[in-house]
Amino acid sequence: MASFRAIKEEMERRIATRQWAPGATIPAEEELAREFGSARATVNRALQELARAGVVERKRKAGTRVALHPVREARFVIPLVRQEIEAEGADYRYALLSRRVEPAPELVRARLGLSGEFLHLRCLHLADGAPYQFEDRWINPASVPTALTESFAEISPNEWLVQNAPFSRADFSFRAARASASEAEILGLPAGEAVFVAERATFIGGAPVTLVRLVHPPGYVLRTSL
Amino acid sequence: MASFRAIKEEMERRIATRQWAPGATIPAEEELAREFGSARATVNRALQELARAGVVERKRKAGTRVALHPVREARFVIPLVRQEIEAEGADYRYALLSRRVEPAPELVRARLGLSGEFLHLRCLHLADGAPYQFEDRWINPASVPTALTESFAEISPNEWLVQNAPFSRADFSFRAARASASEAEILGLPAGEAVFVAERATFIGGAPVTLVRLVHPPGYVLRTSL
DNA sequence: TGACTCTTTATGTCTGCACATAATAGCAAT
DNA sequence: ATTGCTATTATGTGCAGACATAAAGAGTCA
Question: Which of A82, A215, B94, B222 could cysteine-pair with A174, CB 3.0–4.6 Å?
Answer without folding.
Answer: B222
